Amino acid sequence: MQIPRKKSVRRPNRPGAAAVELAVLIPFLFFLFVGSVDLARFFYNSQVIAECARATAQFGSNPNLSDKTKYESAVEFGKVLLQDLSPPPTISISHGTDGLMNRFIDVEVQQQLQLVCPVFLKSGLTITKKSRAMLSPSAIDES
To answer: Are 113 and 126 in contact (CB under 8 A)?
Structure first.
């Protein structure tokens, strides 16, 4: 017994359909790629700036560290940690006293990040990280 075959449905010849579909998708894929590059740069810079703020606050809270290292100030130490970032972030340091009369050092690191593809944010993004460290007893005794 012979099994009858179905007639195959022949598709119309469309030689340029794949090229047109690719041409429609390329701008979207490019925008997605550039956006992910900007997101990765933002995340990396945020992590480096947060670590710099923390380490600079710790360095600034202990004045004895400047005698044991090659850095003269906490700002100089922080700039070494940020040397790979472009544009270079700014570091500001302030001292204060909390409600319990404990002295502290505040470090703020800020960077204006320019985006690779500034479609939605023309001026870029501002990354700001702050850190506070209590002054060590030796710093309080000296002042």
So the answer is: yes
Q: How many domains does the chain have?
A: 1
Residue 103 phi/psi, 5° resolution? -85, 145
Among 8-12, 16-20, 67-71, 74-78, the range of highest mean pLDDT: 74-78
Residue 57 sits at φ, ψ, to 5 deg, of -65, -40
For 109, the domain range is 22-142
CA dist., res. 79 & res. 70, Å (int): 13
Closest CA to 36 of 116, 124, 110, 114: 116
Q: Does any domain span residue 2?
A: no
| pTM of the full structure | 0.80
Q: SS3 of 4, please?
A: coil
